[in-house]
Amino acid sequence: MNTIRDRKQTPFEQQAHSLCTGAFATSAVKNGSRIFVAHGDGRVRCLNDDGTVDVIEAHRGAILSLELDPSSESLISGGDDGKFLEIDPDRGTSAEIANFGSRWVDHVAANRNGLRACATGRSVHIWRPGASKADILEHPSSIGGIAFGPTGNRLAVAHYGGATIWKRQAKRGWQRTLLRWAGSHIGVTWSPNGQYLVSSMQESALHGWRLRDQSDMQMSGYPTKVHAWDWCGDEPFLITSGAAQAVCWPFDGARGPMGRSPLTRGGSENSWVTQVCTLPGTRAFLAGFENGSVMLCDLDEDGPAHILRHATGAEVTVLTATDGLEMLAIGDAEGQVLWSRLARES
Amino acid sequence: MTRKQIPVTLLTGFLGSGKTTLLNRILTEQHGRKYAVIVNEFGETGIDNDLVVDVDEEVFEMNNGCICCTVRGDLIRILGGLMKRAEKFDAIIVETTGLADPAPVVQTFFVDPDVAEKTALDAIVTIVDAVHLESQLDQHHEVEEQLAFADIVLINKTDLIEADVIPRIERRIRAKNPYARILHTTRCHAPLDTLLEQDAFKLERVLEVEPTFLEDEHDHEHDDDITSISLHANTPLDPDRFRTWFGELLREHGQNILRSKGILDIEGEDERYVVQGVHMLMNSEHLGPWPEASPRESRLVFIGRGLDDLDLQTGFEGCKTA
Predict the structure, then answer these.
(1) Which of A102, A317, A334 to mutate to test binding with chain B, by most B CBs within 10 Å of its CB?
(2) Which pLDDT tens digit goes with each residue over B206-221?
(3) What's the order of all strands across the beta sheet hosting A74-79?
(4) B58 touches chain A (CB under 8 A)
């Protein structure tokens, strides 16, 4: 896409590789020094640091969810074609794990122990390593999000009326703990130490539970729904989208964010943060905006944020950085993808 | 950057009215458009260009204290997903089950910011079975609600009844809904371009509202029947008094007021003030000057239950400037 720019390109824009796919970037994962972006045309694109792209044909409709299976280093994906797929990124091939027909596979997740899960409608299907049949976990309503805990075989599921934590026990199978909170929960994330569970809500707020005693934490004040989050720093902070600035909640101490105010970082006039992504191993993170701009922010610096990419008009829908910071990628709703290592001046 | 919002048609109708027949036509006809159809247990796949999505209707209460703020959670999820597809749709059609109240679907478009940004409610199309409508109206309140919300009513199966019954059916529909466009069909054979992509929910379309007035057509068989009331005023309305009265009315009685539409002449304002409400939720806007030819007057229509008890006429009169 050629656009006439009336301002100087940022160093990142100058050196980044760029691809216009024409298909909404729906999700992205990193593995080693590579980044994989899932798109609305059913393809997964592997972005290489020499600027080349390997295209993997995966789904027949939009890819709704893409994750790395840390036990096998393959990718797993769910699509609106009803398929739950395993993708071999080296061969560029995909294989069907399950097919749900006209039901969408909205969410997928995997953990280090080789468990693989997908959510379709009100059910979560979990495959244990070597098992031919899935365990099916039913819920009272459609599932807003799933996430495996950092340790053990625990799966958190967000739904209407709260969240459910499933724990697998050798003899008794999957046991559930229901964490109630009125309203519709549309996403869920565990704190890295596994002590807190946080959900995103239809009512443009976050809700948290301290798992030790199931005490509730309300994190409200967002003008829009929180669709993206990441954990950053050693405290750590939960950095979130959904407002004009990135909103960062502290989870240190015994009480986490209870009774405390969040930090706000970055910011853009007339635009909301739609994506956030921690630069691994640092206290810096990226915030992507509805207007297409991307800023580099720092938990410890409240000054003006560094602009990595100017506004384009297309919502940032994907932001990822590899663990060694070899590469970071930006994807948007118009299908534009930019990727590069961080520029020296950045 | 404002992108075009994709129009969404809500298709309602009691069991056996002919919704499936219409959906089959949409999916098989050579219309040259690309539609996505969201259905419940349809059992058909999209032919040609169209996409069929199966959902379970899930009505959620919003946790924000508004007692009638129920939304369709499944719709928020599916509409969000459809926006990610590489292919773009000309329109989306949402079918509800025969027993569904249309309000949660409509409220979803008012309440959910993501849905409101990318899609727009286009029209509520209600199909009725000409043979069974009268008995269904007496037995199932869902039929009344589906009529009350309709922008377009399709009287289907007219070939199966005597021609002189049709005016009676129309009168009963008009008593519940004075402004819906009524079409007569057999096997849902109305042209698709009279049903889809109609922009009926745009505030601009409220300007065309010419409610049909019925003389003494209060066929109150039950106290909880849905009826409509149309109010008129030739003197301008006081802005503060109107907003206070209308706001309190929707807040306190929004559960019983299903829909409201009005074009208002506000004192001291040169433009027409247009309001449109669904239960407690309301949109309003100033929509250009009064046309030279037509007189400045206020018209306000309510559709709901127990309207007689709300003293709407007195309340409206009280908004007039002295």
Answers:
(1) A102
(2) 777 666 655 444 555 5
(3) A63-69, A74-79, A83-88, A93-99
(4) yes
Domain B226-317 has CATH 3.40.980.10: no
Residue length of chain B? 322
Q: Are A305 and A295 in contact (CB under 8 A)?
A: yes
pLDDT at position A1: 41
CATH code for the part of the protein at B6-201: 3.40.50.300
Cα angle, residue A317 at apex, residues A311 and A323 outer, rounded to 5° = 100
Written as six digits, the tokens of B11 are: 């298709």
- pLDDT (tens digit per residue) in A36-66: 999 999 999 999 989 999 999 999 999 999 9
The ipTM value here is 0.88
How many angstroms away from the CA of A294 is the closest CA of chain B?
17
Q: What stretch of H or E contains B128?
A: strand B119-129
- Asked if residues A212 and A197 have their Cβ atoms less than 8 Å apart, the reply is no
Domain boundaries, chain B: 6-201, 226-317
pLDDT at residue B63, rounded to an integer: 64
* Chain position carrying tokens 């309000």: B103
CA distances from A203 to A207, A218, B56, B82, B116 (A): 10, 12, 21, 22, 15
Crossing angle (nearest 10°) for helices B73-82 and B103-111: 60
A80: its two tokens: 């609106």
Domain range summary for chain A, segments of one domain joined by +: 223-346
Residues 279-338 of A with CB under 8 A from B: 291, 313-314, 335
Query: How far is the first Cα of chain A from the last one, in angstroms, to the nearest whole number?
Result: 24
Predicted pLDDT of residue B224:
62
Predicted confidence (pLDDT) per residue in A137-161, tens digit = 999 999 999 999 998 899 999 999 9
Alpha carbons B180 and B62: distance in angstroms, whole number:
29
DSSP of A14-39: HH-EEEE-SS-EEEEEEETTEEEEEE
Query: Using the beta-carbon criterion (under 8 Å), do A225 and B113 form an inter-chain contact?
Result: yes
- Using a CB-CB cut-off of 8 Å, the residues of chain A touching B86 are 22-24, 39-42, 62, 335
- Compare CB distances from A104 to B45, B61, B81 and report the shortest one's residue: B81
For residue B204, give the 3-state DSSP assignment: helix
Q: What architecture is domain A223-346? A: 7 Propeller (2.130)
Task: Supply B55's token pair.
Answer: 């959902």
Radius of gyration of chain B measured on its C-alpha atoms: 20
**Chain-chain contact of B73 with A80 (C-beta, under 8 angstroms):** no
